[in-house]
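User: I'm new to structure prediction. If I give you an amino acid sequence, what do you actually give back? Let's try with this one:
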Amino acid sequence: MNEYRTHTCGQLRAENIGQKVKLAGWIHRKRNLGNLCFVDLRDHYGLTQCVVDSTSDLFEQLQDIRVESVIGIEGEVVARESVNKNMPTGDVEIKVSALTVYSNADVLPVQVFGEGNEPEELRLKYRFLDLRRERIHNNIMLRSKVIAEMRRLMIEQGFTEFQTPILTASSPEGARDFLVPSRLNPGKFYALPQAPQQFKQLLMVSGFDKYFQIAPCFRDEDPRADRSPGEFYQLDMEMSFVTQEDVFKVIEHTMGTIFKEFANGKTVDEAPFKRIAFREAMLKYGSDKPDLRNPLEIADATPFFNNSGFGVYDEKAKNGEQIRAIRLPNAGNKPRSFFDKFDAFAKEEGFGGMAYVAFADGGAKGIAKFFDESKMAELKQTFGANDGDAVVFMGGKKINKFAGVVRNKLGEALELFDKNAFKLCWVVDFPFYEENEETGAVEFSHNPFSMPQGGLEALNNKNPLDILAYQYDLVCNGVELASGAVRNHSPEIMYRAFEIAGYDHSVVDSKFGGMINAFKFGAPPHAGCAPGVDRTVMLLLDEPIIRDVILFPLNGKAQDLMMQAPNYVTDEQLKDLHIKIDLPEEKA
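Assistant: Good question. You get back a string of structure tokens that encode the predicted 3D arrangement of the chain. For your 588 residues, that looks like this:
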């Protein structure tokens, strides 16, 4: 028998009544009723109510023990007078006959019982206490189950798990690297991998065919609600002799199964998931991460405003600005204040306001007065509007993203979002290159290791900004869940692709020498993808902040307040690494 317990705190049921048992755990809560003292004892598995009578010598001892102290109890399982149907152990309680204190708790800086309102900085400083809270504890346990299911599903599909290096070379992959100085190679640095990108492609060149890994990735990026600073985990996978369709089938089976298993009553799209070209996504949804729970779609209204009669937008269209429209079903009878709110928002964002036509019961309103009868008929036909609907218009030189923001705001205001669904889609056909808005330089838009559609011929003969890539994102409820591509396995195509982006052969050989050298000795066509573990769990739990699904997260300044990292190191350590610190002068 275990020295500390015969059962866990989530195990006892009515069939255990009459048994002598031992439990161990944390004092979750105490309630002194004068003649009885109740203690909720908590461990990893659950809660059990324990009771001590005032006639017992243990009664006074228990009064002096603070909550969150670790104790062991012995006693008899008895039926509870007041059954608690909200607890799995709610039919029974323990009549305590012996008590041992294993560890006394100090006064708590963060309360464990209930959901406190402590600031996040305090929660992160005492994360070990925060993790004892039921919600956070359950979040981390679900994360573990999701990872276990990812592994099972990938192995079931013939994939093998490999571990790739953590200390590697710096490479220009979009984000800042975390650098690690080398003691044995003065002046040189390792980089922590932003992703196992090159190594997993090298595995394909090495003939392993199907790889996966629950991979740690490191990027020195600013935090967001759905992105943790520093490190994150992804289900990294790669396959040989495949097209993007083969990757889609694997990911749709894996992620589709995971979402169904852990959806907690929400609906999940069936495979194959919807495919949306990047340019279509930007036009119809104003985002390359469309939230399909919102049924509203954006339409190009620029051709409509060609001497339409509404001079403001006619002038915009004539000057090369784009006009966008969104049909709002059953919103025609909304009060003017509803539309005025969005008009004010557009003005605040620098887009000059928003116009609307509302097909109300008493006749068309808004800018309808500027249109003749035939133009109103054209408006209805063009935008699919019916009596009782409304259509809003907005315009500008870079209107797509703003229209996407408005689409989501309107969807929320009209309560159109299906909050009980996981809507998944693939965004495909990304541009291979994009233009830097500040410098005008041509840059990789997504992943420099992707295969351009059309191969070398497209690189040599097409405008770089017109070239598409075999790149794809998996999107769920407006969150980018995975990113992947068919890889460029040809040295000639890779040299040319990097040349267009401003990198000569020497840079490619220096930064990606290991991979491009391997490609010269026979590389199979290959493709892959990498769904994010943290974001998957965040979506499944409907948590707004990604830190609440990570065991020991950094704060918004990329600091670990509990372990006090990053921190200063000794001069001796710096000397070993041949490093001198040149800190900026503090402002007076």
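You can read the tokens as a compact description of the fold. Here is one thing that stands out. DSSP finds 16 helices and 24 strands in the chain.
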